[in-house]
Write a structure and sequence with these properties.
With 268 residues, the protein is mainly beta. It has one helix and twelve strands. β6 and β7 form a beta hairpin. The radius of gyration is 27 Å and the shape is globular.
Length: 268
């Protein structure tokens, strides 16, 4: 009987010691759910980036496109990359809810006839696929105002597929300017590929074909122009900051012989 009582007392004391030790330990909080993988903002030079910011996050960007093309296209605003002179762009994109954002870009031109003029593109962007998917799709559209003064509407579809360290993409952009004598629809197509070379550096190539409607004879602005060129991008600060750019070279009569673009984007 005595041994049983002693055993019970020892067991009770041991339980009390263990309980006290556990009470002194800090609480262990449940792990936070994993966030979406970081996506480099605006890593393409010409293609539309097929991602949207998280709700109430912002991606800000600026870029400059320049060419010595001697023609006189009538559409000297940011979506037109075959005008003479240079275009400066400043813009931002705000995530509204998951997969939906609003974007706005302002343009100014170095063309003598457009000095001091200002253009803009504003629209909504919708990304229906999960951000964790290797396939990225964005459909967007909205209002535009050319630097030269015409108002219009635009729509765009951009698709990108990640395959290991490689990335393949395509963008189709259509627009209509509400002025007499303009094309029914202006169509630009872009395609590209890039590869994660080492660390933050990516290298690739991008192709642009502008005013494709000219191939069918519906062309008021100088015919089809297309060009191709190497591109490079550097992703820094946890892939929140992207610097990219590259030269491009005309492939047909009427295309700009040489042009280039440099850009910077930062995701908040």
């Amino acid at each position: 009987m005595r041994s049983a009582i002693i055993g019970s007392v020892i067991g009770a004391v041991g339980a009390l010691v263990v309980s006290s030790a556990r009470a002194g330990e800090p609480d262990v909080l449940p792990a936070a759910p994993p966030s979406d993988p970081p996506v480099a903002p605006r890593s393409w030079v010409y293609l539309d980036d097929p991602t949207t910011p998280a709700p109430w996050h912002v991606t800000a960007f600026t870029r400059m496109t320049a060419t010595g093309f001697s023609g006189t296209p009538t559409r000297p605003f940011g979506a037109d990359v075959a005008h003479p002179g240079s275009i400066m762009e400043v813009g931002g994109e705000l995530g509204l809810v998951r997969s939906l954002s609003i974007a706005a870009t302002g343009y100014s031109s170095s063309l003598a006839g457009d000095a001091g003029a200002f253009g803009t593109m504003v629209g909504l962007r919708f990304a229906p696929l999960a951000p964790t998917s290797a396939t990225h799709l964005v459909m967007s559209g909205g209002f535009l105002r050319e630097v030269s003064g015409g108002n219009g509407a635009w729509g765009r579809v951009s698709l990108v597929q990640d395959v290991g360290r490689a990335r393949f993409g395509a963008t189709v952009h259509g627009e209509h300017v509400f002025l007499r004598g303009r094309d029914g629809v202006d169509v630009t197509a872009m395609a590209g590929a890039s590869y994660a070379i080492a660390g933050p550096l990516r290298g690739g190539v991008e192709y642009v074909a502008q005013d494709l409607e000219g191939a069918a004879g519906d062309e008021a602005e100088g015919g089809v122009r297309h060009f191709v060129g190497p591109t490079a991008s550097v992703e820094l600060l946890g892939r929140r900051l992207t610097l990219n750019g590259g030269p491009a070279f005309g492939l047909s009569k009427g295309s700009p012989p040489v042009l280039g673009r440099v850009a910077l984007a930062y995701a908040f």
